[in-house]
Request: fold
Amino acid sequence: MKPAVIGVIAVLLFAIPAGLGAEKITILYSNATFTGTGLFVAKDAGLCKQKGIDLELVLGGGSAPTVSAVVGGYVQFVQTSAASLINAALQGAPVVLVAKVMGPAPYKLIGGMPFRRIADLKGKKIGVNRFGGAPDFLLRYVLAKNGLDAQKDVTILQTGDPTARLLSLFTGVTDATLLLVPEEKLAVEKGYPVIIDFAALGLPYVNIVLATNRKFLEDHPGVAKAFLGCYWEAVKEAKAKPEVAKKALAHWTRTNDSALLDYTYKLWRADYAPQSPLIESKELELLVASAPKGAGKRDVSQFLDMRFLP
Reply:
């Protein structure tokens, strides 16, 4: 067993007390960002307890250990990138996507001061966090759709964490850099232009999802229905009550900057909060296309189970 998975299991064993009365379920979420708004409100507002669910949220520390935990049956549900789950499912893992958390990809390509259009990037250097991830794939896909060959017309550099990417942009090491919302806020406030807002492109794509192990879903359909019901109530409450949502975001992301919380919440509500928890098969097509070679053509609907949505 991988050390990362062992660490996650240890956290679960020592952090979760025995539940009394309500059905205990654990959600492992991969990153403490605004993608968790619905989960955070569900927990802090006690919405799941009203449906007999004792909800425990555990930070998984990235997509890989989060996916491993649900594949092994160590947690009941996970919230993580659809890309990592689809890759696991294509390799035979017993995972199934049960609800949409965020459809549009929350990435923005920020340019250096002279660069304002995609065409301006020809011959230039672009920073990404790492090669092979969803942001890297989507960047290459959009560049190609706009007539730029990512292999010949630009140089894509693996530049690491957000701080390193911003520094590379500000110092001119890169001519543009790909940032996750709200990482781009500092650059935009300094006047750096947004060259590509991926959320505005309307790509057939689902970014963050809730998923579970197929066996758990088969054995506990009532629990799945109750949890997904309270989760969706929390999303609606977060949209309707900004202060409730921002308080939960502050708690779970450990952010005390009120201006950043306002900015993050407004973006989530306007551009990223799902209008429906339903995932459609067409939203998985780009993910399957970006999967490692050899996956072959698959019926993507087999990776979905929408029966328990409210």
User: Anything to note?
Assistant: Residues 96 and 303 are 5 Å apart (CA to CA). The beta strands are 23-29, 53-59, 77-81, 95-102, 107-111, 125-128, 155-158, 176-180, 194-197, 208-213.
